Structures are given as C-alpha cells and as structure tokens.
C-alpha cells in the first residue's frame, strides 16, 4: 500500500479549514455519484483483439453446505484488460520500439510483465475532472458523426461554451456521443470498424496534452478517431498521449448521463486494479458532485 | 451508467457553499490517497477455494507493428473474484438456502448469474470511513494474536481511544494487524489455516452491524476470526453481515500504513467492477484525506 | 488410470495370432493417420454460447534463463469444452430435467461438476469407424445444402454405396460437407445461424442409434440439422442420442480429406481429456489405416 | 486436417493381408486400452510455474430450457498446457537462445505463438510403445528412490529383463514408480521439490535418444531426475531430447497399472490437441493390446 499526494497546480490553501475537513463535510452532506463505467457482461461489445470477457459461477449455493446451514457461491472471470471501461498504462503502446521513458519496449516486458510502466504504477486518482461535451458544442447534442475527427477548435468551443477551463493535473473526458451505441444489439456497431468512430486525432490529442492533464478519457473503445474501414491500423493519439506526453487514456466510458445532467466539472475518482506488470486495467471511474 | 445519491444520516447543509464546491476545493488543494488494496501478482496468498490469479501478455511489443512504427502489448487475466482485495456482494453467502432478501439462493443463480444481488448491484461508495485500529487499542500495536476473536469491547475501546464514533452509512475498517503477513514468503502464513487468524466473531459482527454501517472491511482474507485448524468451516460474521443485516464485507485490505499514519477518519472511496451477476469483485479501495 | 475392454460384437478370434500381435504388426508395417480434428486457433468459428478459445504465452524464451543457458516458454489457455472439435458427455444434455441414467440433471451437477456422467467417464475409444459420405451418395459430393435434413434413406444409401454396414459398438461419422466452410474468413458462415446447417434430424438420429454405435460424429458444430434462423432452439438429435439412447456425439470434425481419399472404414481412435465432471472435452480423433 | 504416414524402420509387409485388415481385425477381436493419462481435477498436483487448472460450469441444466423441455450444461476451463499429463513441443525449451531447428527462440515466438515448432506441429502418434519398468529391473518394483538418477545401465537392464529392445521411431516410457504419489493428499510430495524426484539424467537421456525413439515419457512432472532442493534449476535431459535430438517428452503419465499387468510392449496412441503455436498440449495417451 502506498500513499500518494495529488496537488493541482495553482490552488491555494483555505485558511482555517483543512482539506480533510472539506472532504468529510462533503461526504457528510451527501454526494451524487455518476458511474462512468460500463457493466461487464458476457457478449458486450469489445475489440476482438483482446481476450473476451467471460464469467461463471464455479460454486453455487448448495454445492457445499456448512455445518450451520451456511453456503456460498463464487466466481471465475477471464478477460483482457482492455475490455469494457478500462485505462491504458504507459506500457501499452510503443513507438519505434520505445516506451514513454525511452526504455526498450521488448526488453521492458521481459519476464512476461512490465515491471516499470505496468498498470500497477498507475496511481489512484482523485482529481478535478472536466467533461468536454463536444456534440453539444457543435449543436448536435446527440453525438458526432461516425468517423468524425474532433478538432482543437471543437475542444476549445466546448471549453468556452461550458466555462470549464482545463487545469494542469486534471482529468479531461471527451464526449463524442458514440457511447449511445454501446447497448446496440449488433455489437459491431459500437466497435465501428466499417462505419468509423468519432474522436480526436493527432491534433486534438496534442491540444489535450498541451493543457497538461493527468489523464484523458472518451466514450469509445479506441478513444481516438477511427476512419471507416481503418480499424486500429494507426493510432496517432495513443502515440502522442501515452508515448510522447505521458497522459493516461481511459476508454469505453459512459458519459451520456453526465452530459444530460449538464455536469461538466466534478471530482473525478479512478482506482485501477493494481495488476502487476499489466498493460492496462478494467476500471469504473466516478464523477462526484454534491447530492 | 447510473447516478446515485449517498447521504450520511444526521448531517446538515453548509450554507453558502455547495457540496460540489467543497469537493472541488479539496481536490484543488491537494489530497493524500492511501491505497488500501493489495497488488495482484501471480503467487500471492489467496484462498485455494477460488480460482488462482494469473496474468499473461498475449501480445508484446513487436509482435505486431503498425505501418507508422507503433506497436502495442496487451493482457489476459483469469481469476476468482474473491482473490486479493475484494468486496463480497450480497449474492455471495446464503443461510438455510436464503439470501439477504429472502429469495431462494439456488434459484437466484439460475442462468449462471445473480441478477438481483450480484456485484453489479454494489453501488460505488464515497462515504465517511473509519479505521478501528484494534491492536493499538489493545496495547499491542503490531497486531492481534493468531486466532484471536476481536470483541465488541475491543471495538468500543478503539472508538474511544481514537475519538471516532461510527455514523450510520459509514464504512468501518477493522485492523487486526494480520496484514503484515501478506508478503510472507510462505503463502500459507497469511492464509492462516493452521495458526488461525484474528478477527471479529459473531458478537463483533453484530456490534458492527448495530452501528449501521454501509460496509465493513478487514486486513484478512476471511474478514472474521478463524480458529486454528477450522478454516472456513463456519463463518458466522458473514451470515450476520451479508445475510441478516445487509452490510457489505471487504477483505484482504492493506491497513497498516493508514494506521501507522494515525489516520482514523477519512473519505472512503470504493468503486467495484460492475461484473454482472457475480458474487463479488476485486477492488482497490482508497482512504482520502488532505495532502 | 483404468484399463478397459472394447469388444465389437460378432467377431471371432484369429487362431494362432494374438490381437496384440496384429496391432504390433500393423504399427510395424506403418499406418496412415487421418487427423479428424480442427486446429485450435484464436478467432476460429465456434458457438458464441461457449467461452471463446484463447491462448497466450505467459513465459517466452529469455524471460528466465537457467544457469546453463537453458530457457523455456509456456502457455495459458482458456476455453469452453464445446469449442473446436469436441465430444459431448452424457452430462451435457437433459430432457425434462433428467439425464441418460434417469438422474435429476440439476442435482447431478451439485458441487459444480457431474461426478457420474462427466467427461471423465468417457472411455478412450479404439474401435471400428465408418464414414458415411452422404453428399457423395446423394450425387453432390461437395456437400449437402444449408439446412438440409439428412434422412435415414440418405444414410442407408451411403452404406449401400460404400458397402460399409455399421456394426454394434462402431463409431459412425456422418459427413455433410459443411466442414468446407470451417476456414471461411467470415466465421458466421460455418456457424450457419442464418443459412441453416445440414445434418440429421430426429429420424436420422434414431436410425443411427438403431445401428447400435458407441458414438457418432459430424463435420458441423451442432452435429444435427439446423433450420435457417433457428439456431439451437431445439436439438432433437441430441435428445435421442445423449439422453435416450446413450450414444456419444462428436462435433466439428474434419472429414473432407478422409472422404476425398475414399476411406470409409478404418480404426477410429479418440482419447478425450479426462476433465473431471465436465460436460464435454476437446478432442482430436484419428482415422487409422495402413500406410 | 492432414494425413500422415508413420512407418517404423525395419519392418516388412505381410503378404496377402493389408495393414488396414490387421487393424480392423484387431479392433474387431477386441482391444484392451490402458489409460496412461491422469484425470484433470481442481487441486491436482502440478508445477506452480504453470497456470493452475480450473473448471466451472457456466451453464447448468435448468439455466435455460428449450421449448421442448431440453436443457444443456457447459464448461469453461483454464489451464497451462504443461499441467497434468502433457507433451512438450519442440518450442518449449531453448538452449543459448536457439530451438531445435537452430532458429532464434525469441523471434520464434513473435506474434505470441510458435508458428514453426508449436504444439500444432506434433503429429498424432500410433506407434510401437515400450515401457521400461526400471524399478522392477532394479529389484525394487514399487519405485526408485527420491532423487535417484536412472542410468543407461538401468535402462539396459530393463530392456534385457523384459526382452523389449527399442526400435527407431518407437515411443519409450520410463517408469520410475514416482507416479504412486500423484494422489497423495499433500500435493507437494508428487511435485517433490524438497525430496527430489527420480528420473533419467543427461546420460540416460542421451542413451534414450541413441535408440532413435520418436518420443519418450515418464511418470513424473519433470520427466528427468530432480535432485533434492534443486527444483527445475537445470534440466539437461530436456536439452538433450527437445533441443539437440528432436525427441518429444511426455510428462506426468500413469504407468503403474501397465507395469503391474506386465505389459511392456504395446501399440501406443497419442493425439495432442492441435493448439496453434503452443509449447505443449495436455494429452491422454493410450497403451493398446489385445483384450
């Protein structure tokens, strides 16, 4: 167990009331939690590049009954880590054989795990979060078009419309509206190989990185723009964010309820599973405001 | 995605400053996060009753290189949900064939998952948390003896010593000190079948439930007292908490750092994976205070 | 380890030469082995009702090097047992809540495994095998039409054309020709939900059972006829064979090479994994003749 | 599906009777099959270096009932391939970074699987098999001592005592007697880290290879001699057989029943799962003689 300190730049101390007091007062008054994660269910849409999510009950009630009449059921799950709502660790992507810290990507995984940049090195986050509702800023609140590349101008327009500038160390969530297809009976729609998927491209990723966030996220599987038929052939935003600028990426988030409630600024909480040496972790991020 | 409201009973509103403001001010000033979860590593101590945790990299960097020189690595994990730091859902335990809500436990799992009381029904938590450092209250701060049953008097002594009464809706973490054996090279030590493991028994669990918490947790695999050689033959605290009183149980937590820092009251955050119909979920809970 | 005895009815002893001698002479002269199984590969066509097959190398060469310069790589696999070429155990299917032996199907799985009729009770087979090349008998050697129901008359025609009567205790393989779609780039073609899949229906299954075989097999996932759009809504052949008549079913076999070689009678060998209490096992059956 | 030809050197054709006739006559007369594999059960002894075997029933009867009253149960399994009775592929072991065919071991696994020397390249075997009952030859029929190295002289003594010379292309099974501990309630006994395990060493492996077999096997997890406390620190027999001489190794076999029956020569059958690119496969080998 480690203790870590998160301090957003440019903020001062409130005299007389400790931060702990503020936290305790907030939870005392009551908070509203927006669940930004997707349920993990068999058959949910996910990239076919990753092991499918499966769940079973090895033991059901009655399989074994204790002397006092008690019984228990348990689970087995098997899955890729980039399945459902998840966060990419810096070990996930390399460019020209190098990771973020300049290390050799192939050697970094020697032993079958990434000791230096694996998911276990992603510190839990309790930070200021900003939702950039891009479709609303574009006047098409339902969502962006398939394959649409969200530009720096679009992102700025959202900031302007919402009045939510991004501070260094924040977590920025980019809503494309594509999440509305997550529950579609045809899984391939949300995956969007043929149609393309909206999201930032290299320019938008660079603009985001320039705001100095700690992490970014989106409501699509791949986070960034996929052109129709391209699949994951090139992922420049991943390169910019994970390899060049050191910004975590959270994917397949559920952002529509947050947007519908008009909540653009919140306490963002994310606590990844500390999977030693992994390239990512399933997560269930939260946007927390007052009740 | 759902939005939920958490309000601890008996708290009033602070005029003039919204709860959202309090939260944003807190994260702005900077928070210190205590990670209450254990890393997930191959070979870590866990109950043999549950599928072992395993991790592998199906894809390593270089296995597939994109046209622009980018490459990615990914993971497969397989595990039981009651492995490592985890939370028990109400579907986990039954008594005389019934679950918490009186439903038939065997029928509740029809279809291979618990639609009503599965892990997906555990709402994410952002609540007041209290750590009861029992060994410190007993004058043996390193830890309780193997197989020691923590009594209501012990729990009250901790509350008294710390000055941290428990409020309804809080999350109460009971430190036994047994967590110091988690990293022992002999896995069986932490599992403690032969030695027994300290923890509350039926009386302590009842006392806890009477304080009206939303969830309780401990630094042992089984949460409750295990007598030497008994293993999991009877688990009365599970019955009291999960089946009778509707209080979640979090197990195998890391509590020593929190105790060493003397932090007994904090904002507690836990966001379980929404594994549909499961009996539990691996978690990485957080204790958050000011930086 | 168990030893079992297989004797096909109606055969006599050859004086002077033991059966062991015959076997040793055969292997001494050289045998030709037709592999009737499909390779297990990620992404192969399989029923979505069963956990997907996945494979990864947790350890690659160089991850750990021994003092003498040796190194090893290993695997993790996760799969359903009814994936790829596999055999159904009698525990697999029930009718009106009963298994083959009249036992209660729900109780039979208490404890999370079928102690009485699980895959571990399928004895390894070394028996006379007969391939019924139905498309050839019908004059359309490439294959039967999608959704075509192979009738008793069709099966008899194949026996007649080939001159291979079925003896009690034999293993009968029914070729539909559908196996030619196994490697199709569109996985859904072989699965055949929309198109339907050829195979025997209730009548053909009954005819087969009346010949007294020990097991039957086919080159489709479901063994029996699937009407277009029906999927696995009703599977009468499974009922007849597994629940009523006690005949094992082998699915997703590769039979085209055997048929192309005109081999209709052979020594059939199948050795399922002895997965305790499972409902089936992946297998790699063999048809063996002289070289 | 592939057809392959296996011919043991030095054997002639029997005029007038085809090999196929011999095979069909043998199965017609009735064969006795000795199962040389171990059941796959949760908790069975296995090397901790490999993912544990687990099995569960995702679906039990009644979870889903068809319109006609039929229902099915199915499985999920997860395991390493070097678990239980299994065969090592040539991809499994390297020496100084090279595999059997001189290829670079690290590059050979690029893409996460061994395309050239993986388990899918192990042809199914129907060959003459020889059991060398070493303990019986040594006068201690129950078994060799823990950590005893079986020497070329021991192997020759067994051949001599039994009158079963080894021919090129045969499969040679070396019984140590250690298999009697497979079912021991203390799993660590069969694994034998502390006690050591009997088996051939480099000299015995070389002697075996010099006989020209196609594969060898033993009744221990590691096939070769393990000195007390050494574990798998060096495995010279693996190097000799898999990397230098190209002889497959089968491990954790059940050989005691075969030995007790005095069967030293038989038709040996082994059909590995064709797991693409894997380093091994679970198997259930058979020794077949007349009934």
From TrEMBL, chains A, B, C, D:
<dbReference type="Pfam" id="PF04199">
    <property type="entry name" value="Cyclase"/>
</dbReference>
<dbReference type="InterPro" id="IPR007325">
    <property type="entry name" value="KFase/CYL"/>
</dbReference>
<dbReference type="InterPro" id="IPR037175">
    <property type="entry name" value="KFase_sf"/>
</dbReference>
<dbReference type="GO" id="GO:0004061">
    <property type="term" value="F:arylformamidase activity"/>
</dbReference>
<protein>
    <submittedName>
        <fullName>Cyclase</fullName>
    </submittedName>
</protein>
<dbReference type="GO" id="GO:0019441">
    <property type="term" value="P:L-tryptophan catabolic process to kynurenine"/>
</dbReference>
């Amino acid at each position: 167990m480690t203790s870590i300190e998160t301090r957003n730049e440019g903020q001062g101390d409130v005299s007389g009331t400790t931060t702990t007091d503020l936290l305790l007062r907030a939870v005392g008054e009551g908070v509203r939690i927006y669940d930004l994660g997707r349920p993990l269910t068999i058959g949910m849409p996910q990239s076919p590049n990753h092991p499918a999510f499966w769940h079973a009950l090895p033991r059901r009630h009655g399989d074994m009954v204790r002397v006092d009449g008690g019984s228990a059921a348990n689970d087995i799950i098997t899955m890729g880590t980039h399945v459902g709502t998840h966060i990419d660790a810096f070990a996930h992507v390399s460019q020209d054989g190098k990771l973020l810290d300049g290390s050799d990507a192939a050697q970094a995984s020697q032993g079958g795990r990434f000791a230096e940049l694996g998911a276990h090195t992603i510190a839990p986050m309790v930070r200021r979060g900003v939702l950039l509702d891009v479709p609303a800023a574009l006047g098409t609140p339902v969502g962006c078009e398939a394959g649409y590349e969200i530009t720096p101008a679009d992102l700025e327009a959202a900031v302007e419309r919402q009045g939510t500038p991004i501070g260094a160390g924040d977590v920025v969530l980019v809503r494309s509206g594509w999440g509305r297809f997550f529950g579609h009976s045809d899984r391939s729609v949300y995956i969007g190989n043929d149609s393309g998927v909206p999201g930032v491209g290299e320019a938008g990723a660079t603009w985001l990185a320039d705001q100095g966030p700690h992490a970014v996220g989106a409501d699509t599987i791949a986070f960034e723009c996929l052109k129709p038929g391209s699949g994951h052939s090139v992922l420049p935003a991943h390169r910019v964010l994970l390899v060049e600028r050191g910004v975590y990426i959270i994917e397949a988030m559920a952002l529509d309820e947050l947007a519908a409630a008009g909540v653009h600024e919140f306490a963002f909480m994310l606590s990844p599973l500390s999977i030693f040496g992994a390239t990512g972790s399933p997560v269930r991020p939260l946007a927390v405001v007052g009740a």
